[in-house]
Amino acid sequence: MTSQFPSFDLTGKAALVTGAAKGLGRACALALANAGANIGLGLRDVSTAADLEDEIRALGREVIRLQMDVSDLTQIQGSVDKMVDTFGKLDILINNVGVAPANHAENVTEEDFDVTLNLNIKGTFFASQAAGRVMIGQKSGKIINISSQAGFVALAEESVYCMTKAGINHLTKCLAVEWAKYNIHVNAVAPTFIYTPGTEPWLKDDVFHQNVLSKIPLGRIGDPMDVAGAVVFLASSAANLITGEVMLIDGGWTSQ
């Protein structure tokens, strides 16, 4: 019989969430704070998310807003440095920034391509690198990438986005293997369609909405906290034997 039950408590941990202003990033920041973590809000515009900062403080946690456009490596490094200066460590990184511009493959421009790869792949890699250097020194850390079911199944008009999410899935495994010797766990979550400001225009279309629902055996669109719950689990000691995994949160879509 085990002498210790699984713990999902993150009290005293320092977590950096990129793209924290809204949607999945906001939900992850709040859920991690609710579990006990102090939070760094990585923001494309540091003047935003004052309300989120207040909500986290109301939970009794410390929180800082960080200017962190992940297309700018200087801002990435500066944000990680400020996390360490403020909290003395960096325990958790949530790589949430991503874009999904819809376009037929034959119409994708070089600019469209470069912007999507720059944010989704390059930003994820270099944020992980900056955090990883700190975590290597600490001999501990949790990195959780926000991927997508689009890394497993094809979505029409989303060829570049799907490609980047498949890349994130494999990057997750590569970093997990390389950094396991430092007790750094690297995992990802891969949601289906979730109600967020980014998906709202699509899901407002009745035909599109019904088509999505028809592919989800559980019969509902996800809520941001559906994803945040998995993130809290992977960030906690309850997941200490899990690394290199991509957890699908898709209501059964890819099981068919």
Structural commentary:
- The longest helix has 29 residues, at 110-138.
- The chain has helices spanning 23-34, 50-58, 73-87, 110-138, 159-179, 200-203, 206-214, 224-235; strands spanning 14-17, 38-43, 63-67, 92-95, 141-146, 184-191, 246-249.
- A seven-stranded parallel beta sheet has the order 3-2-1-4-5-6-7, with helices on both faces.
- The radius of gyration is 18 Å and the shape is globular.
- By secondary structure, the chain is an alpha/beta fold.
- It has one domain: Rossmann fold (3-Layer(aba) Sandwich).
- The mean pLDDT is 96.
Structural key phrases:
256 residues, alpha/beta, 8 helices
Report the CATH architecture. 3-Layer(aba) Sandwich
The gyration radius over C-alpha positions equals 18 Å
CATH topology: Rossmann fold
Q: Could you give the distance between the termini?
A: 37 Å
Query: What is the strand content?
Result: 5-15%
- Report the mean per-residue pLDDT as an integer: 96
What is the element string, with H for helices and E for strands? EHEHEHEHEHEHHHE
Number of domains: 1
Question: What helical percentage do the residues reach?
Answer: 40-55%
Number of strands: 7
The largest sheet is:
7 strands, parallel
Strand order of the largest sheet: 3-2-1-4-5-6-7
